[in-house]
Specification:
Distance between the termini: 20 Å
Radius of gyration: 22 Å
Structural class: mainly alpha
Order of helices and strands: HHEEHHHHHHHE
Number of strands: 3
Shape: globular
Length: 244
């Protein structure tokens, strides 16, 4: 981000600039150099706020590219497609809204809590390298998009914070009734009894079905929760530059 953009954001955070003026000025600074003499290295794509903070969170073009680079299911391209960029933007918008909710909760800043977070970040990094094929492959993708180790750790810390918030908000309160397990068993296995295949008993797959139903319930509740965050009064998502 350019020095001018940093000055704009700092002035805004101290109450010296109204938000609307900040957005207009930042958009102006992203015009070609023939119009704006200051060349910026990155582009502010969108701002996101749920109304709980004076300063919105910003999503940059680099954030979108990094999101795609860390997705094992997305081939790394020199010029990402509009579809992939918009998908990354939607995911980051949702993540920012959840992070803003998570920040409302008191966080433990004890040495033990920080150690636990650091260990979880390292675990996530190792898992990401494994999904991509190797640590070398992860570093290669990071290098291609200009993502440093410190920035990767910051991204992973945000993901950990989101997951812990979901655990607090949803996972501990999910209840799966025995009838739901029985119904899923009958839908999945009962019809195979006369197919010549070996069909497990309900007791043999009870825990597996329970876990499947629990994860499905949590995913559905999270989707509803995020949709509600987008629609709640005070939420404002401003796309400054359409990604393409």
């Amino acid at each position: 981000m350019s020095r001018l953009m940093n000055d704009i954001i700092n002035a805004f955070s101290k109450g010296r600039l109204p938000f609307a003026f900040c957005l207009l000025l930042s958009a102006y600074c992203l015009l070609p150099s023939a119009v704006c003499a200051q060349t910026v290295a990155d582009k502010t794509v969108a701002s996101v706020t749920n109304g709980s903070r004076a300063t919105p969170d910003l999503i940059t073009y680099s954030d979108l590219v990094w999101q795609l680079a860390l997705d094992p299911n997305t081939p790394l391209a020199d010029k990402p497609s509009s579809e992939n960029l918009n998908r990354a933007l939607r995911l980051l918008e949702d993540q920012v809204l959840v992070l803003q909710e998570a920040r409302k909760l008191p966080s433990a800043e004890t040495p033990e809590a920080r150690k636990d977070r650091d260990e979880e970040v390292k675990k996530r990094r190792d898992e990401l390298a494994q999904m991509l094929g190797s640590e070398a492959r992860l570093r290669e993708r990071m290098t291609r998009v200009g993502l440093t180790s410190e920035q990767l750790d910051s991204i992973l810390r945000d993901r950990v914070m989101v997951d812990k918030y979901f655990d607090f908000r949803f996972r501990a309160f999910v209840v799966i009734a025995p009838k739901e397990i029985t119904d899923r068993y009958n839908e999945t296995y009962a019809r195979e009894r006369n197919s010549g295949r070996i069909v497990p008993t309900l007791d043999e797959v009870r825990n597996r079905i329970y876990d499947e139903l629990k994860e499905e319930r949590i995913a559905a509740e999270i989707d509803t929760f995020v949709d509600n965050l987008r629609d709640q009064p005070g939420t404002e998502i401003v796309v400054l530059i359409p990604v393409s």
